[in-house]
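Help needed: design a sequence for this.
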């Protein structure tokens, strides 16, 4: 693949620089890349006053493609790491992937930084030269959304739940500061939260040519902006972070809402399911049993603690402990989940 490759530095700190792609929706050759580079850089630079371009070139970029596997015909997935975000892992923590139709490609979640997104694009180009027309965001969390600027720069439609633009906008400063401090200033170049008005909502389906992806908005569960996807052709269901495996679930919406959504989904017919974390393909509905078991235990133990008159600070020392051995990153997430569950359930 030939791409326009820019090396940019922070205008406020010229020692912090990064090399990134400025791709087009269609694959270009060397001559086409060079013929359009000047205009594209001019437009791009107007939106990025915080960055100074120190080098530009049309070339085959030196990017290691993300490892991906084809879990069903034309559906390629990458498994995120069970880690907290660091400069080394670049926020490569969520399961992300892409679906290839006859005319176009849809990317499902953007990864936790611009670098992860560019590595996903390199993986896409090993499989297909079709245009990447859509990026579907399953919800707002930074490990799923931070790479979105790449697809925006390509001219793809960014598609999400109707609550996502407001949710992202209200958290933009916190995500840029807190998540940014975890992955570091260099990884954060072009990894800022995208503008709310660049996100399309309300789409029920995406036509990739001979293949329709159906989108369903979920009531408040893992977050207040969870979007599910279903591919008719292969019977593949994407649950986003409505299903965690291996990685301790993270509760950022409603524990009763989340359990209700899973209860309601149990009779849904699917050949396989893609969770937001853990193996990239699980049997359905059995693949949701682990997260359902965890949430049920947390809800039950929280209700018992509230009934005994325990304060929040006492309850969170033990709620969920029965589940500890079943999950990775338990200490990083369980206490926060117990706090969220207590705050919700004390008003029942
Ligand atoms: Zn999430």
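Sure. Designed sequence:
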């Amino acid at each position: 693949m030939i791409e326009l490759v820019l090396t940019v530095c922070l205008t406020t700190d010229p020692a912090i620089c990064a090399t990134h792609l400025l791709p087009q929706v269609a694959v270009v050759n060397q001559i086409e890349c060079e013929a359009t580079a000047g205009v594209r850089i001019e437009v791009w630079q107007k939106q990025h006053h915080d960055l100074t371009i120190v080098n530009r070139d049309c070339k085959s970029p030196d990017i290691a493609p993300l490892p991906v596997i084809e879990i069903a015909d034309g559906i390629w997935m990458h498994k995120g790491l069970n880690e907290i975000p660091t400069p080394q892992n670049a926020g490569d923590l969520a399961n992300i992937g892409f679906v290839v139709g006859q005319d176009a490609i849809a990317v499902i979640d953007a990864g936790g930084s611009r670098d992860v997104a560019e590595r996903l694009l390199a993986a896409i180009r090993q499989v297909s030269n079709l245009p990447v027309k859509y990026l579907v965001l399953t919800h707002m969390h930074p490990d799923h959304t931070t790479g979105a600027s790449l697809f925006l720069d390509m001219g793809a439609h960014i598609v999400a739940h109707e609550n996502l633009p407001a949710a992202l906008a209200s958290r933009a400063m916190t995500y840029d500061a807190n998540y940014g401090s975890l992955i570091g200033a260099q990884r954060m170049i072009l990894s800022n939260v995208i503008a709310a008005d660049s996100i399309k909502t309300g789409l029920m389906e995406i036509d990739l040519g001979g293949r329709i992806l159906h989108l369903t908005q979920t009531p408040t569960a893992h977050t207040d902006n969870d979007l599910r996807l279903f591919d008719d052709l292969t019977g593949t269901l994407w649950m986003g972070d409505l299903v965690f495996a291996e990685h301790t679930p993270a509760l950022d919406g409603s524990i009763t809402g989340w359990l209700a959504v899973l209860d309601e989904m149990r009779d849904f017919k699917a050949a396989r399911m893609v969770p937001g974390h853990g193996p990239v393909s699980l049997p359905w509905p059995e693949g949701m049993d682990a997260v359902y078991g965890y949430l049920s235990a947390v809800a039950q133990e929280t209700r018992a603690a509230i009934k005994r008159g325990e304060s929040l600070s006492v309850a969170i020392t033990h709620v969920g402990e029965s589940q500890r051995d079943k999950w990775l990153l338990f200490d990083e997430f369980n206490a926060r989940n117990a706090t969220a569950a207590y705050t919700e359930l004390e008003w029942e």
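The chain has a mean pLDDT of 97.
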